[in-house]
Prior knowledge:
Strand content: 15-25%
Order of helices and strands: HHHEEHEHEEEHEEEEHEHEEH
Amino acid sequence: MDAKLAGGADRARALSLFVAVVEGESFSAAGRALDLSPSAVSRAIDRIEARLGVRLLLRSTRALSLTAEGQAYLQTARRILADLDDAEQQIADQGAPRGRLRVSAALSHGRLCVVPLLGEFAALYPHILVDIALTDTLVDVAAGQADVAIRFGPLADSTLTIRKLGETGRVIVASPAYLARHGTPRRPEDLHSHNCLNFNFRRAEPIWPFRADGRDFSLCVKGNIEANNGETLGQLAANGVGVARVGAFSVVGEIAAGRLIPILEAYNPGDVELIHAVFVGGANTPARVRVFVDFLAARLR
Length: 301
């Protein structure tokens, strides 16, 4: 084999090995995944570090951790490996969508709105393997942690491509049993005497917006339970624990069944939260990413 070709193949293997070590969090796990001994994996990492002249991993008896150079190398390795995979797949199938598609979606929206669509998508594109993770933790798409992320609300400036998928309104709800015990709020100010359930993530504040006589205003509300997703808050409200303000999509079934009742709708300011798909765009965007985003945009609108 030509020396340059051999060197390129060796570097590709080194990238794969390094990513396997980081994702497996140990030499042993990477060895099992690659059918190598832990010592062979350790020596390979030593060779990478020697070639680069920097330390990529900090080793201890309990764990491995990345240095700043290691984090940069990991991001580059994931991107290069993804590009290699895309190139081979496009050549093999002449551009037809196929391969693994890693999708990140929020817990409630993913379970209620995205997962029910996957059966139809799989039937349309049987050669695409959808690898979906439901989490309210933001993944780093630019670093290769996901191919497509579905995100709510304002987005930070970045070089990523953004595609609007839809939007959702907010609704304040409570169960018939709770309202029977505590009374139905007639004005927003009445909420001060109610148990108002809130979100616990940092960008959420216990401030609910309202509109009356053409004037927008907000109230600070209090309650004794917080959660990281609207589905949980809706479930708590349906169980009679308190009043919740959540995305309408997460409680549409409970409202239809009469387990939750919208309240203070006359004061609803009509605020909406935008839903976007975030991905690495450009001319080399894999076909599987393009067709999935197009599919979601058509179905979720």
